[in-house]
Amino acid sequence: MSNLETDPRESACGGLEDVSAEPVTELLAGRDVVLGGPRAMKVTRTLPNRDIRMVGAWCFVDHYGPEKTTMNVPPHPHTGLQTVSWLMAGEILHRDSVGSEQLIRPGQLNLMTAGRAISHSEESAAEADLHGVQLWVALPSAARGTAPAFEHHPVLPELTLPGAGVTVIMGELDGVRSPATVHTPLVGAEVRLEAGAAISVPLRPGFEYAVLALSGTVRVDETDLTPGPLLYLGGGRSALTMGAEDAGRLLLIGGEPFEERIVMWWNFVGRSHEEIARFRQEWMEGEEFGTVPGGAIPLPAPELPLTALKARGRRR
């Protein structure tokens, strides 16, 4: 999914400043973003957040639905990141400049590695029931210049706990590992809680974590959480308790704190304002990013901010 804002914010992320090495429970309010105009699809964006901009290498989280809506995101570019597409309801067709054409359904993973440059489009049937999340993972310097690639994983490994099912989408959790390609130590997992469930999930103390409620009301480390905000949990945890009076669903993300400082703007992840400006120019000139089949008109890039980014830490 693209960031379709016409005036996107430029964010400096990464680095170890202000990473909480101890457990915390900090609610991060999301902001509503309309993708493509007032009649288009609305998402709730919780990363990057004004207070905390990354959780491990996870640098972008959009949650949309459940609602009857239409996703129609024309060809647009990406650099320096992986896009992680996860659905709870509906179907979305992905096309990209490396020749991939793949329909994604609930419980399946579409993973696109932008590397040095890729473009793609996403679309759903008109007025379809959609519910999903789109996440980005920042690539470290050792991987961000790699060739673009796409993976589709129709079946992912499961972790079964009393009253709960856990799908390991990315990385590893409690010895269960996803087949998806990762470039930094991280985890992304969907947890489905039955009514009355109370579970404990093993964690890595060296990771930082966050949880997003996808449906229902869930209790995470004594905090009641409903869809909307992201609950930042910090690090230093060897386990996490979760429960629900009624059935609920949540997304757990985490990873080693991302040491490199990155710059995010629109659909690009780079290392400086000047590099972002170069990516934008290459996209507008029709170079480097290839062509997405289907004939849709590519999305033009917004204007860059007039002032260059000033270095900041992970927090405001």
UniProtKB/TrEMBL annotation:
This is Pirin family protein. Residues 189-286 form the Pirin C-terminal domain. It comes from Streptosporangium amethystogenes subsp. fukuiense. Belongs to the pirin family. Residues 42-137 form the Pirin N-terminal domain. It comes from the Bacteria. CDD domains: cupin_pirin_C, cupin_pirin_N.
